[in-house]
Batch of 4 targets.
Target 1
Amino acid sequence: QVQLVESGGGLVQSGGSLRLSCAASRVIYRFYTAGWYRQAPGKQRELVADISSGGSTNYADSVKGRFTISRDNIKYTTYLQMNSLKPEDTAVYYCALGNQYWGKGTLVTVSS
């Protein structure tokens, strides 16, 4: 079993930045695609960004140019650097590993 623990969420003003982290508990982390998803109130969960074991990245159109996903295979950690945040980025952010393992989520609130 792999445990994922997110951190770094919080309240920020529009235009601000936050950095989310997701720490995994097992060395198998390095073999999986790691991703960040988000779910806003009343909406379905959506992919924000993911990064393959080899480092290839994929972003939702809504965050391209503002968010950057990265990973550290030594520390078993995935990061999401979020810049130029907008109120519509407000959501619970979840990290995932291979779409098989999920964290419990961290709330990001962007005030206007």
Target 2
Amino acid sequence: QVQLVESGGGLVQAGGSLRLACAASGSIFSINRMGWYRQAPGKQRELVAAITNGGATNYADSVKCRFTISRDNAKNTTYLQMNSLKPEDTAVYCCNADVWEKLTDEYLEVWGQGTLVTVSS
């Protein structure tokens, strides 16, 4: 079984910064893609940023030049550095990973529980 646990959410003023972390644990052989998604009240979930195990990244247009995704493969952890935050960034941020699980020898898509980010104006 594989779990993703997010941390780092909270309340911040517009223009401020937060750093989210997502740690994977369990029966892991390897992790391919890791990503961050967000869902604001009344809106659909959207991809914020993603990173492959080789370090290739992609971002939503709305966060380019403000957010940076990174990962530590040795720790099975991905980070999302969020700068110049805006009220419209307010959402629940969820981590997602494509994991090759040891016990079942299969690829699984795993989701975290999410962490709330609130940006006040």
Target 3
Amino acid sequence: QVQLVESGGGLVQAGGSLRLSCAASGRYVMGWFRQAPGKEREFVAAISRSGVTTIYADSVKGRFTISRDNAKNTLYLQMNSLKAEDTAVYYCAANNYRSSTYSADYPYWGQGTQVTVSS
């Protein structure tokens, strides 16, 4: 059974930084998604099983960095230069096949962690 547990969310001022973590029960292709109130869930970033290949949404490119520590089965999202529009519940997701920007390609999801950026 795949288990994903996010942590690291919180309240931060605009321009600040946060690092999210996601502890996984194994080694998978991983991604981060987010969902703001009243909006659909959107892709943020994804990383290959090895960590060599990463994909980012244009809205976070240059500000967010996805990484992983395979020895710890842990996924990270370093978020810098945060903006009010980054406010959302952030979810980590996993699959056994390939990096994807589509939420439907990820059958496994964490419970989510709230990130709130005050302007």
Target 4
Amino acid sequence: EVQLVQSGGGLVQAGGSLRLSCAASGVNFDVEDIGWFRQVPGREREGISCVSIRDNSTYSTDSVADRFTASADNVQNMAWLQMDSLKPGDTAVYYCAVGACWLGLSADRFGNWGQGTQVTVSS
């Protein structure tokens, strides 16, 4: 079965860093990619980054590209999101999910979601 288990969230001061982890059991990284999303209460999920082992590539939206780095390891079946220079506007619940990076970061094109982890950035 496919199961994504997340960890690494927490409370951090503005300018600090966090690394989120996504343990992607049952996911074939030769076929599927890992996307990263975040959601603020009352707002739709926002796709922010994606990592493709198949294509040896990553994608990030402009709002985070200079600060966040997605990575993955096909042997460990793990994905990570390194977040640096965090801002209060980054406060959200962060999710990893299975999909295809080349299709774009629309949440409705991803499935097998992780449980989410809260990231709170204080000013």
